[in-house]
Design a protein that fits this description.
single chain, 46% helix, 2 strands, 11% strand, mainly alpha, 3 helices, 106 residues, two-stranded antiparallel ribbon
Length: 106
């Protein structure tokens, strides 16, 4: 750390505070414009309900798959999740739904 004399130190501290404020402001401004989730299946922008449920799969695939090293970033709206899970259940030998009364479909 650099120790400065009194007049230079005050000036340096003011500049540092200003730089930190600008960096924080720019970062927050950028984050607000980036945050937007879209359903991978239908392309719909997520509404409040979709954001609250947050159905998705975010995973880096490891060894043992033809997708080794791929990153999966799948976001589903509520409607597409229902269709997707019904399709998956129809292909499963063991039902992945904990509620055993579930029979699927609409």
């Amino acid at each position: 750390m650099l120790f400065l004399t009194s007049p230079n130190r005050k000036s340096a501290v003011k500049k540092l505070v200003k730089i930190r404020w600008l960096n924080t402001y720019n970062f927050e401004k950028e984050v607000k414009t980036i945050v937007k989730t879209v359903c991978n299946i239908c392309g719909k922008d997520f509404d409040k309900l979709d954001e609250a449920e947050n159905f998705g799969l975010h995973y880096k695939v490891g060894y043992g798959s033809v997708h080794d090293g791929d990153e999966i970033d799948l976001d589903l709206c509520c409607s597409c999740f229902d269709e997707f899970i019904d399709y998956i259940i129809s292909r499963c030998k063991i039902n992945p739904i904990k509620n055993n009364d579930y029979v699927g479909g609409k």
